[in-house]
Amino acid sequence: MKQIYVDADACPVVIKEILFKAANRTQTLLTLVANHAMRVPVSKWVQFRHVESGFDVADNWIVQQCHAGDLVITADIPLASEVIAKGALALNPRGELYTESNIRARLNMRDFMETLRSSGIQTGGPDALNQKDRQAFANQLDRWLAKK
To answer: Which InterPro entries match (predicted)?
Structure first.
């Protein structure tokens, strides 16, 4: 049975709420993974996995657990790349579906921006999540749920 994994440390609350409702509505197992305690609704379809603190511990756990066809919610591009390599799908909280055809460009841009930041150039962060982003996320999630 296909399931959803969430890189929950940085996942916006509004996205988690969309996921909670969708998991219960469609009876899809949803696992949130984080290195700090987190409140999740009581549901047989929603679970929380607390992992140790440390660099990429949650990411590594997700990569080990996911299977082809599963959905991973993350804004972490290297994590997205790893789960795509396993045949899973990766969706960011803004509704962008990472694929084999676009992940290399995303990794290259990430590395370029990291190089700029390390040289002292201020690059700024992403804009705040808006209604359009939430709708794009919900639409992509619904497409995946319809295929599962």
So the answer is: UPF0178 (IPR003791)
